[in-house]
Automatic annotation (TrEMBL), chains A, B:
This is Amino acid--[acyl-carrier-protein] ligase. The lineage of its organism: Bacteria, Bacillati, Actinomycetota, Actinomycetes, Mycobacteriales. Residues 157-307 form the Aminoacyl-transfer RNA synthetases class-II family profile domain. Its EC number is 6.2.1.n2. GO terms for molecular function: ligase activity. PROSITE patterns: AA_TRNA_LIGASE_II (PS50862). It is an enzyme of class 6 (ligase). The keyword Ligase applies. Keywords: Ligase. Coiled coil: none annotated.
Length: 312, 312
């Protein structure tokens, strides 16, 4: 690492930590004892709702009708999680849910360990569920089988979890994502991804944000992950819409993600198009908290002083 | 168990399972491979929003102003969870979150176990977080210290998790609760609980539901729990508003809960009133999915045929 890089990283950390302090002081976010977990104030939620109005309008304009809405809870079956191979690609972001399933005696043993200040996790076992890591993940298992001729379009909005504690308020462990998911032929999937790059940039422009579309990759884990990331970039499967929250101190924050999954979910969940081929899928995901933070960073923390079209 | 009881339980199971089938066939709920986890359709969400409009109106009418809103994610710090002693009282409902925090080599070992069809949970460790089991739980740690003279009133809405897989669609593992939480003197807490019994019954009546207030207890775990439950009933700390979803086959389903916590949270989180005493707290929690299901059961699955004031 060069001296310049060190300076920049330190300035970036300072900028992130100062932004977080400002958000907390303004009462927009409530901190907790864990990095990346915050309560949201009513005002913060109003901003999220304003953003969502724009997202919904863009969805209706893009597709010419209201896509069927599905709202999944933040927890989904481990059996579906297993099929996605997420534990192979993103083990470090995963949230597996454990619970206690024993009797009175086992419970007494748990409490004894706990009162001795010992770890009590070994008294728990898998609850058969996982935290949802992308809003669309719980939706694929409901499409197993043959799609209608025109494929499917879904409007999905829900909480996601990624275990990546960070000072940057824009890197939360729990956050909401609003997605439009297209499942159909390879061409339909590619077109969905492509069209939402432009449509997403328009949504951000309407919110007064300067955004840029960049070719990106998922943060695949470890050595093997580097190859997966390179492939994803080479095949141009992921485009992120990026807003600079911290000036030139970093490359910006991805607030929208446009992804083509090829036949990954079609193959995994046995979803077939009308002609019997494995379905392809694509999704656009709006990171609601990140867009809200980008707006607060761009327009200031006092919403009454925002541009008239976005103010309260 | 008598023959009559057996018949009744079997009839009850049939009634629950039939109601679930109807909800799935109508597209209101999307089943998953795990009991008690469902996707919600847009129409189901519209019903939840209608209910919430009534809850918010009741909150404004009861308190004369809009209580500050706080929205917490479905995951909160284990350190705060530990302080509540929830693992002692409700271990079987708990959701502890584990993640992978190892290196490439440890990940390879996890994947090797997985591909051999072996359990891979022992490669994970605590993520330092827990699933939220009551919407208000994440709020108490932010009140540590001395309250303002008038105490505090909070409007909290969020996802809750309880590990209790069941066929009954009204017993979900993940569901939303809208709460009004009062923290202040003993009298203020008791008055909050008492007043919301009547106010809650009115909300349910406005939604066309026949509800009844009954003295209740939490489902404390095991032998020791039976005493805690008896105490809670004797001290009249919990009142549930109950609607009969399955006629006389059971005692009805609790859709709203009015609770006085005494100084449990004040003591645990060191929250003091202006005069230095441990704060008392009380909350009313509206179970949004359960109320929606009660409405679907009462008014029918086709919302266009609902009473004019509640229809689309």
């Amino acid at each position: 690492m060069t001296a310049t890089q060190e300076t920049t990283i330190s300035e970036l950390d300072t900028a992130r930590s100062r932004f977080r302090e400002e958000l907390v002081e303004a009462g927009l976010l409530v901190p907790s004892s864990v990095e990346g977990l915050y309560g949201r104030s009513g005002e913060f939620e109003d901003i999220v709702d304003t953003i969502d109005d724009h997202v919904k309008a863009a969805g209706a304009a893009e597709h010419g009708y209201s896509a069927p809405r599905f709202r999944f809870p933040p927890v989904f079956p481990r059996e579906a999680f297993e099929r996605t191979d997420y534990i192979a690609s993103f083990p470090n972001l995963t949230g597996a849910i454990n619970t206690f399933d024993g009797d009175n005696k086992a419970h007494a043993a748990l409490l004894a360990d706990r009162s001795d200040g010992k770890d009590w996790d070994h008294h728990l076992e898998s609850a058969g569920t996982m935290l949802v890591s992308a809003a669309c993940h719980p939706s694929y298992s409901m499409m197993t089988g043959t799609l209608p001729d025109e494929g499917r379009l879904l409007d999905i909005y829900g909480y996601c979890f990624r275990h990546e504690p960070a000072v940057d308020p824009a890197r939360m462990q729990a956050f909401r994502m609003h997605e439009y998911v297209r499942v159909g032929t390879p061409d339909e999937a590619i077109a969905h991804r492509e069209r939402w790059v432009g449509r997403g940039l328009q949504v951000l422009a309407d919110l007064g944000l300067e955004a840029e579309a960049v070719i990106a990759n998922d943060p695949f884990f470890g050595r093997a992950g580097r190859m997966l990331a390179a492939n994803q970039r080479n095949e141009n499967l992921k485009t992120e819409l990026v807003v600079k929250l911290y000036g030139d101190l970093d490359d910006g924050t991805a607030v929208v993600s446009c992804n083509c999954h090829r036949d990954h979910f079609g193959h995994t969940f046995d979803i077939r198009t009308a002609d019997g081929e494995p379905a392809h899928s694509a999704c656009v995901g709006f990171g609601m908290e990140r867009i809200a933070l980008a707006m607060l960073r761009t327009h200031g923390l006092d919403r009454r002083r925002w541009p008239a079209s976005l103010a309260v």
